[in-house]
Design goal:
The complex is a heterodimer of chains A (about 250) and B (about 625). By secondary structure, chain A is an alpha+beta fold. Chain A is about 30% helix and about 15% strand. Chain A has 2 domains: about 100 residues, Beta-grasp domain (Ubiquitin-like (UB roll), Roll); about 130 residues, Alpha-helical ferredoxin (Fumarate Reductase Iron-sulfur Protein, Chain B, domain 2), CATH 1.10.1060.10. Among the domains of chain B are: about 120 residues, Succinate dehydrogenase/fumarate reductase flavoprotein, catalytic domain (Flavocytochrome C3, Chain A, domain 1, Alpha-Beta Complex); about 110 residues, Fumarate reductase/succinate dehydrogenase flavoprotein-like, C-terminal domain (Methane Monooxygenase Hydroxylase, Chain G, domain 1), CATH 1.20.58.100. Classes of the chains: A alpha+beta (about 250), B alpha/beta (about 625).
Chain lengths: ~250, ~625
């Protein structure tokens, strides 16, 4: 099949192209099972080498190629042509400064990530036998869903609250905090909940739910945010996440 | 050029780089991590099934068994003392990862859960052992995340999206590296007492690969271009189960959970090739079996792929035949819980649901056993006698210790990263305390900047994309699972022509500086061409079959003549370089030699090179 790609482009160095503009490319012999990333590569490799995008693993794990495709945030490597049709519109994710074509400035996103203490804290002495700390599989399951996060920014950049206020930490940072808050081995839950209680923390979330369908890892993002809100309201982290939920 | 000065420059932010950064930093060194990707994008994150360590949480296990499996898996090209260090340090390293918060799955006794993996056995090959410590089927993702988190906690400096393109060597000492800041196109010099290459592999030399687009072997190519030798380049692993045509990896953990390979006759053909380990024989054995089934006309629809079947009905039927305990039997929920990402890949890319249908798989280019030679402290080795280059370090896939020998066992890549990243990081911390700063030469970085100007100015007729595709095709056809003098000569000739076009006829569309991915991809293609070339040449010279290197014209392993590592180096003009190859670096057989010294009779010597049988 033939597919027409309409791509939002911008190049700060080229006179007349510093402002965003649309450009169309037509590809022939497209297989319905081809990934959008492969098609963007075909455009770049066969037609216009200057088309700029980030990508790496090409199978939905590294989180490099988040884009707005036919109006929805997706990883270009995890959406097939057959799911989109013969006209495919590709633009950079929203809410971040565009640097060139589909490449946005990710620094604000990673700044927010770093704000929530995204690392394991446990200052107790290590087990005397030199072995691992103990944890039940049931406790391990409590935060399983949020360990899947690949920091692609699909959720954060689909969130109207984030679009309205770029200082809001955003869904991805909250998911990252969730991963530690509900880990029974971690001891910094309270500090993280304090950080997320601040004006640009979880309460900026208006439960619009855009983040959940945007997640290429199928994390129940809105639910995770809700659990963090509940933990703040109840002032505790135990008994918040219900065990044996579907994920 | 802007100059940054840090005790230690870590190049690459995957598992090995982050581990090195963490331990060098904990040891007191001022560390900068320079990476062409955001750290969480690194390829370590795609590792699925597990990390091997003889914790013995579910089955009796000892590091010496893991050592044995590693040596045997490597078809006895593995350096034995290094393998012992790998297996022993693996236990501590995995426990430390847990202490850093890594969310491993748990056993009913609340300990780290472990699963079976190819070639990992108990008591010197007696039976398969549960050794692979796992976090669902995203163990690598959890390792990468955990290490990055700990680096943030320890306030390690990161230079994200800075791509290292050259190393600076002054009188035989490494004084730092040159990098391009991708966002601006500016060149930067990183002046360091220690430069640590952890840049990963080069699977993108082949057309069907599990490797990320970014795996272009930059570090190994830079070392080669600066006159350093590369070791054992002829050994490149094809993983038996890549998704048909796409190459996306389907973890060996699927077979660890009971999945089986089935040909077009409905036969579990691995029973013929490896009567004991069957589907969990080492990867080279299974990949060859798939090719041989294909040649015999028994691939599915005759299209070069076979089925990987993990449907509970199939798995339980074979479990019953093998007399396994009914408690081992699996159901749909087991697969959903233990292999969520695999199910997601198959459902997304193939429209196949592995709970109800078998997966179409074919061998996929996966892992470089060879690379920058190092000793067990990640110090870069520059000759067959083991002399080192002060200030230069390497670990992970880009390095060759050699613990993987001629074929790496599943899970051992993650083990390699954490063990040698950690040892290297500690060594760097110690080294920078005593080492003096080496002054930078006045012209540092000029040579590579000129090379980039040349590439950027390219106005010929050959697009990088076209050259890359031709390289990948010839490597797949001629330097793949099976090789012969004829195919290898064809590969070498094809590569020479591509190299010529790359240097004389390149076309670059994008002339700008900011995020010029056209330019960077072209430079990376140059790296791949160099590495493909030395791979084909080393394969041409090794006239035996061993591990992943299968010569149709020399079918047997030949310990008499080839119990040695290859070292290849490159010199002269980049458009038509001169290559030198030797086999002077002998394999370390010290564990076997100890057994002989102890007076053990031959049949009790576990580390004596014998024919591999699975």
């Amino acid at each position: 099949m033939d597919v027409t790609f309409k791509i939002r482009r911008q190049n700060p160095e080229l006179p007349g192209k510093e402002k965003p503009y649309w450009q169309e490319f037509v590809l022939q012999d497209v297989d319905p099972t081809d990934r959008v990333l492969e098609m963007l590569h075909r455009i770049k490799w066969e037609q216009d080498g200057s088309l700029s995008l980030r990508r790496s693993c090409a199978h939905g794990i590294c989180g490099s190629d988040a884009m707005r495709i036919n109006g929805v945030n997706r990883l270009a490597c995890k959406i097939l042509v057959r799911d989109l049709g013969e006209r495919i519109q590709v633009e950079p994710i929203l809410g971040m400064p565009v640097i060139k074509d589909l490449i946005v400035d990710m620094e604000p996103f990673f700044d927010h990530y770093r704000q929530v203490m995204p690392f394991f804290v446990n200052d107790d002495p290590l087990p005397a036998d030199g072995r691992e700390r103990l944890q039940t599989q049931a406790d391990r399951e409590l935060f399983d869903d949020s360990t899947k996060c690949i920091l692609c920014a699909c959720c954060t950049t689909s969130c109207p609250s984030f679009w309205a206020n770029g200082h809001y930490v955003g869904p991805a940072a909250i998911v990252q905090a969730h991963r530690f808050i509900f880990d029974t081995r971690d001891q910094a839950g309270k500090e993280r909940l304090d950080i997320l209680s601040e004006p640009n923390g979880v309460w900026r979330c208006r439960t619009i739910f855009n983040c959940t369908p945007a997640c290429p890892r199928e994390i129940e993002v809105t639910k995770a945010i809700g659990e963090v809100k509940l933990a703040i309201r109840k002032g505790k982290t135990v008994g918040i996440v219900q065990p044996n939920v579907a994920h | 050029m802007k100059v940054h000065k840090h005790d230690a420059i870590i190049i690459g932010a995957g598992g090995a780089g982050l581990m090195a950064a963490l331990y060098a930093s904990k040891g007191g060194a001022d560390v900068a991590v320079v990476s062409k990707l955001y750290p969480t994008r690194s390829h370590t994150g795609t590792a699925q099934g597990g990390i091997g360590a003889a914790l013995g949480n579910l089955d009796e296990d000892k590091p010496i068994y893991h050592t044995y499996d590693t040596v045997k898996g490597g078809d006895y090209l593995t350096d034995q003392a290094a393998a012992k260090i790998l297996a022993e340090n693996a236990v501590d390293a995995v426990i430390e990862l847990e202490h850093m918060g890594l969310p491993f799955d748990r056993t009913s006794a609340k300990r780290i859960s472990q699963r079976r993996f190819g070639g990992h056995t108990r008591n010197f090959g007696e039976e398969l052992v549960r050794r692979a410590c796992h976090a669902a089927d995203r163990t690598g993702h959890m390792i990468l995340q955990t290490l990055y988190q700990q680096c943030i906690k320890n306030e390690v400096s990161f230079f994200d999206e800075f791509q290292v393109v050259d190393m600076i060597v002054v009188d035989g000492v490494c004084a730092g590296v040159v990098a391009i800041e991708l966002g601006s196109g500016e060149f930067h010099i990183f002046h360091g007492k220690a430069s640590f290459f952890a840049t990963g592999g080069w699977g993108r030399c082949w057309s069907v690969t599990s490797n990320a687009h970014s795996l272009t072997g930059d570090g190994a190519a830079i070392a080669l271009r600066r006159g350093l030798p590369l070791e054992d380049m002829e050994f490149f692993q094809f993983h038996p189960t890549g998704i048909y045509r796409m190459g996306i990896l389907i973890t060996e953990g699927v077979r660890g959970e009971g999945g089986v390979l089935i040909n077009s006759q409905g036969e579990r053909f691995m029973e013929r090739y490896a009567p004991s380990a069957k589907d969990l024989a080492s990867r080279d054995v299974v990949s060859r079996a798939i090719y041989l089934e294909t040649r015999a006309g028994r691939s599915i629809k005759n299209r070069g792929y076979v089925h990987l079947d993990v449907r509970p009905g199939t798995v339980n039927r074979y479990f019953a035949e093998e007399g396994r305990d009914r408690g081992d039997f699996i159901d749909d929920a087991t697969i959903e819980r233990k292999l969520p990402d695999i199910l997601d890949f198959c459902r997304t890319y193939l429209g196949v649901d592995p709970v109800h249908e078998p997966m179409p798989v074919q061998p996929t280019a996966h892992y470089a056993m060879g690379g920058i030679p190092t000793n067990v402290d990640a110090e870069v080795v520059i000759d067959a006698a083991g002399a080192i280059m002060p200030g230069a370090y390497a670990a992970g896939e880009t390095a060759c210790v050699s613990v993987h020998g001629a074929n790496r066992l599943g899970t051992n890549s993650l083990v390699d990263l954490v063990v040698f990243g950690r040892r290297g990081g500690m060594k760097v911390a110690e080294y920078v305390k005593g080492a003096d700063w080496v002054a930078l030469p006045g012209d540092a970085g000029n040579e590579i900047r000129a090379e980039f100007d040349r590439i950027r100015g390219g106005s010929g007729a050959s697009r990088p994309g076209e050259l890359r595709q031709l390289m990948q095709q010839t490597m797949m056809e001629n330097v793949g699972v099976f090789r012969s003098e004829e195919t290898l000569q064809q590969g070498i000739d094809d590569l020479a022509e591509l190299r010529d076009r790359f240097h004389k006829d390149l076309q670059i569309d994008d002339k700008s500086r900011v995020f010029n991915t056209d330019l960077m991809e072209a430079w990376e293609l140059g790296c791949l061409l160099d590495l493909a070339d030395v791979t084909a040449r080393a394969a041409f010279e090794r006239k035996e079959s061993r591990g992943a290197h299968s010569r149709e014209d020399f079918k047997a392993r030949d310990d008499e003549n080839w119990m040695a590592h290859s070292l290849v180096s490159m010199s002269g003009e980049m458009s038509a370089p001169h290559f030198e190859l030797n086999f002077d670096r002998k394999v370390d057989l010290s564990l076997w030699e100890e057994e002989i010294a102890q007076g053990l009779p031959e049949d009790q010597q576990k580390f004596r090179p014998i024919e591999r049988v699975y």
